[in-house]
Structures
1.
Amino acid sequence: MRPRSACGALAALAALAACDSLPGLARRVAAPPGPPPLTMGPWLLDPGAATMTVAWTTEVPSAGRLWYGTSAPDHLAIEPGAGSTDHRVVLASLSPQTQYRYRIEGADASSVFTTAPEPGQEGPIQVLVYGDNRSNSGDHALVARAAAAEHVQLALHTGDMVVNAREPDLWRTWFREEHDLLAKTPLLPTVGNHEITDSGVAYSRWFQHRDRPTYWSVDYGPLHIDVLDSFEVAAGAKPHIGGVSEAQKAWFEEDLRQVPKDRHVWVLVHQGPYAHPAHARPGHGGSEAVRAAVAAGAKIHPIEVVFAGHEHFYERGLIDGLHYFVMGGGGAPLEDPDPSFPGVQAAQKALSYATVEVCGCHVRGQVKDIAGKVIDSFRLSDCATPCATPGFAAEPAAR
Ligand SMILES: [Fe+2]
């Protein structure tokens, strides 16, 4: 029997290596290209009891492929449509309040997320509130790292992620510094004025649901969260001039009419109804348009709290029966609040974030600085019915 040549042996093995003398064969046996590596992400959007969206970007277009499962990532979800650099894979038919492991083909490592409780279910859940990162890289990274260590289930962002939304490098830095938090924690953001320096194009690309405006709501266990847009481009807003359309206000009121009476309603918005900087600046302080919208909404359904940003400090207050927060210590250059203003209950110039625990009727929280020091604690709701989670009500009482 004639021995095979070296090239013949390789052809028979079909794929061990290409052979210079057989260029056609070399093309046939070349290994298929692997998935392109990620350039940003992953991050998690649109959390539900049965759904989660996983987003990421790649340098070159590809079809997104994501493995996921409860004990191991053994189910494959493939992004529909033509290949893209901006990927979103929508996972459905998930189990509520369940941890899943997932792995994107092309990513270095796997991660986990937890689905929401069913709407109306009491929890417990733990929610992060932060914002105003503004590309002040070192400080933003410190806040993001401290927040990631809290291991919350959901993150609310009060807006102003980057100083200029037109600059792709700033977004790459923002996603890199947020990675450990956003790979595990679904993000509910609202539009900041710095997100409309490009008329909201990048914000829409990274975060906005493609079938809805920048204002929307979500049911998450015991919470109903209304995300409002205080810099609505459709209302004529500019980076230094807020705007809220009549359409948004009408949507907000109609949305509240559908909410069960026992649900905690939170509002997330960039420029809130109240804020008291020590040094006044044009376009800062509370938004009259948001104040009016929230007051009108509160006549339809009790609004437990408004979480906002826009000012680069921490403030908590109670004015005209409305609990409000300014969570703007996410990394932007810090400013001085005015703690002496009537209604202000706490205020600090500090890099900071809040964690809020909800279980049934009980809502309480803490605000920490980046060293882990508790700079404020609060209770937003309480009742005689104990939380089913042992130890929940035994924590230190809030002010
Ligand atoms: Fe702002």
2.
Amino acid sequence: MQQRESKVVRRSSSATFATSSVDGFVERYIPVDVRRSDGGSRNAMSVDVEDYFQVSAFEHRFERRSWGDLPCRIPQNIDRILQLFSDSNVSATFFTLGWVAERFPEVVRRISGEGHEVASHGFAHHRVGSQTSDQFREDVSYTRKLLEDTSGSPVSGYRAASFSITTDTLWAYRILQEAGYKYSSSIYPISHDHYGIPSAPQGAFRFEDGGIIEVPLSTVRLWGRNIPCAGGGYFRLLPFRFTQWALHRIQDHDGRAINFYFHPWELDTGQPRVNGIPTKSRFRHYVNLGRFEGRLKRILDEFKWDRLDMILGEHIVSTR
Ligand SMILES: [Zn+2]
């Protein structure tokens, strides 16, 4: 099924297509310049709205059917994030689980009411490759409608759980497009044990004219490879000065909009500690949590940030 579906990556001789110079990814794609024509330097800030018990690294520890029984810290953590964004005059995109919208509709309305973009993170954080194409279609269609009905605003964007659009799941783009999405931000162009397409473009692109846009998470090219610097665990683990340098490099030298992300639980030093998980997962989840908020504040003030749909601007059209 996946081989058949992957044919949606259409080959074309159109002059607007650029040929990828790297192996392992699709041969042709169309770069999308998301820089404003007036020379502005806005960057994309995003939040993946899920709680500590919903992350992929803990999925064998917390069954999805037990999520409702656990104390959920999303409302208080989102309040904190909205305050930080307000303090720094930042608008952002919130890739939200359908599960969160069903359980805490008022949180989704607050996000939307404060001028942020509500986008989709799927319903229950299933990786793309763990679903059949029919299950995936149902998931992304249902979640998009739920988020639109809850927020009262059109939903244009999608981010796959754990950046799970890889070379095996490129079929997802056609389904996302059919479901009404205008863009995705689901590829991390790095080598990683659980996700990533190291040969994918670093900047935004699409596969066909008018097709859905993919905005990969930010990387900086160093020592012949893409180094992740777009947020999450990397932001907590790597020295802040490196991240600062890398983000400026992307913005000022590479001329691309930064695409940055984090999770509500990363600000939450009081979250329950989870036992019975592998050492590596434990390290990735908890490393430097106490430093996160201070670092975030610094980059919120040091760079200009906006919602992904606003940055994509004319490249996407209204979904309603
Ligand atoms: Zn996630």
3.
Amino acid sequence: MRIAVAGATGTLGRLVVEAVRTAGHDAVPLSRGSGIDLMTGSGLADALSGASAVIDASSTNSTSAKESISFFGTVTRHLLAAERAAAVPHHVAISIIGAAEADTGYYAGKAVQEEILRAQGSGWSVLRAAQFHEFAAQLLCHGRIGPLQVAPAMRSQPIAAAEVAGELVEIAGGEPRGFAPTSRVRARSAWSTWSGAISRRPDSADRSSRCRSRAPGTEHAGRHAASRARRTPRPAGFHRLARHADRMSR
Ligand SMILES: NC(=O)c1ccc[n+]([C@@H]2O[C@H](COP(=O)([O-])OP(=O)(O)OC[C@H]3O[C@@H](n4cnc5c(N)ncnc54)[C@H](OP(=O)(O)O)[C@@H]3O)[C@@H](O)[C@H]2O)c1
């Protein structure tokens, strides 16, 4: 299967490209670096030729509602038009839990993205995820005002971007399903994150990573964490919790 990935250089997009290849599909990374601008639509027609699905993992850094609406509205319309022209049957988008009810800041753009897809009738899937573990590092990168570092307060039950990437690829490999349930992702993430956390050692090299790389300390929070954790001595109650997490993820 040929799967195109919009936003292929981003925090999530890079992991989606990896997950597409791991699943044995052909990945077509769409990025400005390879001449595809989602805001103008240039280069899209050729890139989508022969694709069975498009996973949209693009994003803007802007927290302005106006700019976010413009970005997600324009990108979604350009992708859908190019998909129609290239007869791509499935558009898969990532949204954020609660974004549809929000009309402020960045979330307003996500709400518009969902609205546009809902209006399509068929041929689309949307996975709503919580903030990624990597989001903390993204906030730090984008939250600088001159010499000041802004650290907004918020409550979240974050998820590893690698888990979301895997789920998006699984969705892209099936029939369009509209809004996909999020519960399975959360249960699976809780398990892999927790098992990764107990086997993790701080790695000072990661602290100096650049903005788009994985957040400090979350480097093992994805799928590979479980195999690493299997080789690690378990604290009391581990196996009971593991069985519970396993039941939840089915
Ligand atoms: N981060 C989170 O915690 C979180 C949680 C839930 C859902 N999401 C959703 O996940 C998606 C990806 O988020 P992210 O945090 O991974 O984003 P990100 O790291 O900021 O990456 C954004 C991507 O979009 C690309 N892009 C931006 N403008 C473009 C343009 N005009 N043409 C082509 N490509 C363009 C960037 O490419 P360049 O290399 O060219 O800049 C980059 O690959 C978003 O829809 C977001 O709402 C994120």
4.
Amino acid sequence: MAPTHDVLVIGGGAAGLMTALTAGQRGLRVLVVEHANKVGKKILMSGGGRCNFTNAGTTPANFLSANPHFCKSALARYTPAHFIDMVERHRIAYHEKELGQLFCDVSSKLIVTMLVDECLAAGVRIETGCSVQQVEQADGVFRLDTSLGRFAAPSLVVATGGLSIPSMGATGFGYELARQFGHDVLPTRAGLVPLTLSGKHQERLADLSGVSFPVEARCGKVRFRNFMLLTHRGVSGPSILQISSYWQPGDDLRLDLLPDRDALDWLEAQQRQRPDAELKTVLSDALPRRFAQRLCEVWLPNRPMKQFNAPQLKEAAALLADWPLVASGTEGYRTAEVTLGGVDTDGVSSSTMMSRHVPGLFFVGEVLDVTGWLGGYNFQWAWASGHAAGMAV
Ligand SMILES: Cc1cc2nc3c(=O)[nH]c(=O)nc-3n(C[C@H](O)[C@H](O)[C@H](O)COP(=O)(O)OP(=O)(O)OC[C@H]3O[C@@H](n4cnc5c(N)ncnc54)[C@H](O)[C@@H]3O)c2cc1C
């Protein structure tokens, strides 16, 4: 079959649209095939509807991958400043929330509109509600059998994303395609996801659902300082979502409940200043009252500060600085923001995103084994890898 296009992109999400507009701007005939009824659904729901579209401080250290070097080249060539340029050209107002996280002032819709407008201006054809039945390659041409007919091109870009939020169109199709063409797929699991507790660990905290406070979450050598939120089923909030990408069932997870102070120094000072106050009253000054109370019902002895001797105070301080959180699992793909693992980067060129096994086949975005932290990093990877492929197809 003769080529109908120069480039076929499967998946009209962040990375697919970025690849398409970049290739289209180079004068190539590009078709984006999206099986959902509209493109960019995850962009629309991202950042609470305001899309945290990049992180101004993005570095390769903000990503997890079996090969931590893989993301470097693409991230260096398409930086947050490049994407911000496009956002500003489209007069989309934005602001920095915290830690370099850039959000739209008004709505994520503006980012999708911007990407689609750039695609259309570059002559890209976008087909939604189009499912791919089969992919074949012969004589250097990829042929796609879809619900809208057959398409063929010398370049095929797999931009189907990860497994999180199946209700938004997520499928394992990209992984199947990768395997079909001889690629390894590393085991996948949910990342940036709330953790669940079970048994007594859940019962002790379940009625505190909604309580939130800053902690430092630690797993191995990794630590994140931010808010934790207690939920009906477990724990969430930015510090927990971040650490969830590093945690696996059975791993030791610890929380510093007083991340901004030295627990022992502080307890000693409290003992001097208010010897008759009970521990739970003292702790209520640093933690939400109900959580402080629960700590003193289950984990710590509640008595007037003057009744703690030095070793007992030290023990209490050690628990507050290194509180064990016994998680049983995660909420899974249903609520996860990202998928860890995916197409093994060993089989893919880090500068072009092209397969090392099959010339003309590209993988971009989350389908690859590259996963960012919470805070705009995942979109920056989608833009950067999409741009790299769009320049190379
Ligand atoms: C609730 C939520 C909030 C998020 N917020 C942020 C945030 O604020 N900042 C940030 O950086 N990251 C955020 N993320 C992560 C970010 O959305 C993803 O990392 C990013 O969208 C990945 O881009 P992608 O193009 O690789 O995949 P996606 O954006 O998921 O796009 C893949 C596309 O492929 C389509 N597709 C799948 N299978 C097929 C098939 N067989 N045929 C045709 N089409 C197919 C899908 O329908 C989808 O449109 C969030 C994720 C979630 C779930």
